[in-house]
Here is the input.
Amino acid sequence: MANAAGLDAFKEIHETEKKAAGKKLKVGIIGTGWIAECHAECYQKMDDVEIVALADLIPGKAQAFAERFGITGARIYESDEAMLAGEKELDGVSICTYNCQHAPCAIHALDAGVNVMLEKPFTVTLDEAIEVMRAEKRSGKLLTIGFQPRMSENMRMIKKIVQSGELGKVYYIQSGGGRRRGIPTPFGTSFIEKSTGGIGAVGDIGTYSLDMLLGAVGYPKPLTVTGYTSDFFGKDPDYYPGHPEYADKFGVDDFAAGFIRLEGGIILDFRISWAMNMDTPGDAIILGTKGGLRIPSTDCWNGEFDKPLTIYKTVCGEEIEYEVPLKPTKDLFFEKLRSFVDAIQTGGAPSVPSGEIVYNQAIIDGIVRSAALGKEITIDIPEV
Ligand SMILES: NC(=O)c1ccc[n+]([C@@H]2O[C@H](COP(=O)([O-])OP(=O)(O)OC[C@H]3O[C@@H](n4cnc5c(N)ncnc54)[C@H](O)[C@@H]3O)[C@@H](O)[C@H]2O)c1
Here is the structure.
């Protein structure tokens, strides 16, 4: 009878055979802007992966990228569709386009039978996310969404604490984080224009806050949302020294808040900011009937935290608090891409599945729609 050690031995032989055969996984990168650099550097560190194609809509950009990173031999294209038509042996693509091109590029790749690592946020709207999931289903290919904070042991600890029952029944979760001054324009305006970014802080860094909290409590389905968004800083020419014209281009939110009812009776109190007149909107907290958890805020929220968690409990009638020491973190970006590659090679499950992130996207979409309507809305998530 097979035992675990026997299976591990088989796995080792299998891995050795694969390496001996010299078969490298062939990947392409769609969109060669800022974040594509991290994807390229991580793939280049993997000796079983080869970057065979690069695409960018801006003529010459993918070629310059290839030269900058020494990706010799990669074929160059001027759109995702051209790449997918020209490459017949792609195992996977990293989609590193601005948000508004996430859904079309993901659908094109999945329909071409290619596995997809899609940068966060999943999409701009819930409808787009559903269309991507339909393409995932009909293709039978792998889709994972690029949330590197999930690879952190400290982030996993939040989930372990909640799932262990240490806090009792969780009934209220509150997001923290946010930035005092942090509208992302160092590399141009693709984050802040409606036609490229589509959504602002709520999608860019709000999606991380949502993932941290929803992931901890098991990703319950959102039922209703009351949302608010504003753009007071983004629309102010004085915000951008040397680039006052950015204010006219700003077409998304720089602050968002929401009150969300989740299945199972949990309330989510959400806020996020690219810019505000405050250092932080507070720490993230998880309240349960037997304990509470505080997740410390950071100066410039980017989905991770860098100070110990604190647990609050009553023991023998005494109110006590204790810290959960931070564990050392690995290269989370590398781990995110390695988990994509491993899942392709082993036929394993995606580390960040669309079936969870669609709830994250539904909340983002709900906040934006509720804010525009000025009232609470019910969230309907179509079956896929
Ligand atoms: N995970 C992270 O830590 C992290 C960090 C930064 C950005 N991001 C995400 O990565 C995405 C890209 O951000 P960025 O800062 O690199 O943007 P960017 O504007 O610097 O680069 C995007 C590139 O995609 C290209 N592009 C758009 N549509 C295309 C298409 N159909 N085919 C080929 N090329 C196309 C654009 O021409 C542009 O060069 C965003 O969705 C952002 O949210 C993630």
Notes: The pocket of nicotinamide-adenine-dinucleotide is lined by residues 30-36, 55-58, 61, 79-80, 96-99, 101, 105, 119-120, 146, 148, 187, 190, 204 (CB under 6 Å). The longest helix spans residues 354-373. The chain is about 35% helix and 20% strand.
